[in-house]
Design a protein that fits this description.
The chain is built from 13 helices and 24 strands. The protein is an alpha+beta fold. The strands form four sheets. Strands 16, 17, 18, 19, 20, 21, 22, 23 and 24 form a nine-stranded mixed sheet that branches. Helix 5 crosses helix 7. The radius of gyration is 25 Å and the shape is globular.
């Protein structure tokens, strides 16, 4: 039988409704997100969609505790689907995002075609609207220059307006930007258990500013981003007027998951903001990348001298933009100085229902074929007989793992089956924060770092972390930097200062090109290390230099 990593029957994306559907779903890797993903769905909802290049057969969502959750075919399996990874349904996500956006722009007649250019559906997306006379084409696969030029001429002859946009691997965005002054780009990244679509503007110097479609508008020429029109909102181009705010007088709560890049050294967050003695307003807050990302369930106060900058997006109401040096998080979710700010409730692990406990203890295969570790609260809900069966299953599985390890010649390591956050008193959120702080410290000292230092920062041992756990932690850290952010994971080295073996997997999970050859991977790692060192070397100098570069 093929190994887990080689078994292409196990896939990360599917479609719902029917085999020919264009409604994609992405199964989160982590078992903590599996139950939320399955809410409102049944085991019969998923198909290996034909628009994914699949066989059209039903898929089963598999929950695992110590490896990636995934979809699996039901035997017998005769599927020739070529792409099964995290980004394998991105063409459907982009198509659906364009359909929704065009409907908001008043075009409810949009038709979408997913073209097969030789490697399966999704080599390009064509969206026709305006009675079919207007076209947006998103080129995802590579095209030879003569083929591209011929396609442009053909589509221009049959449509009144044609706009070309480009995916992360087409290679044509550079040519378009050099010829026309800019190119529209699309990419997707994983956020909150789904794939989120970002649209970017690439300039001739090959930098890309990313935003979301709801910040763009539609003209006769097609998609117009704030950066295309020179709007300052999402890219921190300083406006003519800026008002300094008193330190400690402005509090905020984050209203959306994740952030978008705001230049090379900052990130932009959607927030509800309340100055002392005033009302709540919606604003965008620009913070340094070095700052720990603000959590949605906490109340935060800006420090330093924040700058309040009014701006107006095209065809939008005036809004506010605040550029700050950093913030502090209050220990309580409310404060009398800012009475109208209400963070979202802190995430709480759902209690284990009786039937779930029985499924876990009596039939381990029902929760994905892996034994796991219950929290003390979950364990206390089991009956005495269930507790005995639970430990019997754990013991049996450990013995089987030890035998397998012995047969392979590798010593059994407890960290292979016990991620540290499965233990009472240890949460993944705390581990991720501790590791991130240690990586930021290393970046400021301009050094690489090993897991002995990172584990010590979290109050644990290197042996407590399997490669799977290390990958999961570093992905959580790098995803917060956005699709074009610096990768702190590039600073992590193994013994002898050698690169870690799972860096390529991290690249794929944060939406970067992956599956690279060793020499290409080494080049990417060195480039990312240089970007990290530049971003964290001297934050104040970087900020001043950037402002001078972006001056009037």
């Amino acid at each position: 039988m093929p190994s887990y990593e080689d078994d292409t029957r196990k896939v990360q994306t599917a479609v719902t409704g029917r085999p020919e559907s264009d409604q994609p779903v992405f199964l989160p890797f982590d078992h903590d997100d599996f139950d939320g993903f399955m809410q409102g769905r049944s085991r019969d909802d998923f198909y290996c969609g034909t628009l994914l290049g699949g066989c059209g057969k039903k898929l089963t969502a598999k929950r695992y505790l110590h490896k990636k959750c995934h979809f699996a075919h039901r035997p017998p399996v005769h599927c020739r689907r070529a792409r099964t990874g995290e980004d394998s349904a991105d063409h459907l996500y982009i198509g659906q995002a364009l359909r929704r956006w065009l409907q908001q722009q008043g075009h409810r007649d949009a038709g979408i075609a997913y073209l097969d250019l030789g490697s399966g559906p999704g080599g390009a997306i064509e969206v026709r609207f305006g009675q079919g006379r207007r076209l947006i084409r998103v080129q995802l696969s590579r095209l030879a220059a003569p083929v591209w030029e011929a396609a442009r001429a053909r589509l221009s002859d049959t449509h009144t307006h044609v706009q070309w946009a480009y995916g992360p691997h087409s290679g044509l965005g550079h040519v378009e930007a050099e010829a026309s002054g800019h190119a529209v780009r699309f990419t997707c990244r994983t956020e909150s258990g789904s794939r989120v679509v970002y649209v970017g503007t690439q300039t001739p110097d090959r930098t890309v500013g990313w935003t979301t479609l709801d910040s763009c508008r539609l003209t006769d020429e097609g998609i117009v981003t704030p950066r295309t029109t020179g709007a300052a909102a999402l890219h921190a181009i300083a406006p003519a007027v800026a008002f300094p705010l008193a330190s400690g007088s402005v509090a905020f709560t984050v209203t959306a998951e994740g952030a978008v890049p705001d230049g090379p050294t900052r990130l932009l967050y959607e927030a509800d903001v309340q100055p002392t003695g005033s009302v709540v307003v919606r604003a965008r807050i620009s913070l340094p990348r070095a700052a720990t990302p603000p959590l949605r369930h906490r109340l935060h106060v800006l420090y330093g001298t924040p700058l309040l900058q009014p701006f107006t997006l095209p065809s939008a109401e005036p809004a506010w933009f605040i550029r700050a040096d950093g913030f502090t998080s209050l220990p309580t979710p409310t404060d009398a100085r800012w009475p109208d700010l209400r963070p979202v409730p802190a995430p709480v692990r759902a209690p284990l229902r009786q039937q779930e406990a029985e499924a876990f203890t009596v039939g381990i295969a029902k929760v994905g074929g892996e034994y796991g570790h219950l929290t003390p609260q979950e364990y206390s809900k089991l009956s005495k007989s269930q507790q005995r069966r639970y430990w019997q299953k754990v013991k049996q599985r450990r013995q089987a793992d030890q035998k397998a390890q012995a047969a392979s010649g590798r010593p059994h390591a407890r960290s292979e089956t016990d991620p540290p956050w499965t233990r009472p008193g240890v949460s993944k959120e705390d581990v991720v924060k501790a590791v991130r702080d240690a990586l930021v410290s290393a970046a400021r000292r301009q050094v690489c770092v090993g897991w002995h230092t990172l584990a010590e920062a979290a109050g644990l041992r290197p042996a407590d972390f399997s490669d799977w756990a290390r990958t999961s932690i570093l992905v959580s850290i790098d995803q917060a930097s956005g699709p074009e952010g610096v990768l702190l994971s590039s600073l992590v080295v193994s013994s002898g200062n050698a690169p870690v073996p799972y860096f390529d997997a991290i690249l794929g999970r944060v939406g970067r090109p992956s599956g690279l050859r060793p020499i290409e991977l080494g080049q990417v790692r060195k480039t990312e290390q240089a970007r990290v060192f530049a971003a964290y070397a001297h934050p104040s100098d970087l900020t001043h230099g950037r402002d001078a570069k972006l001056g009037p």
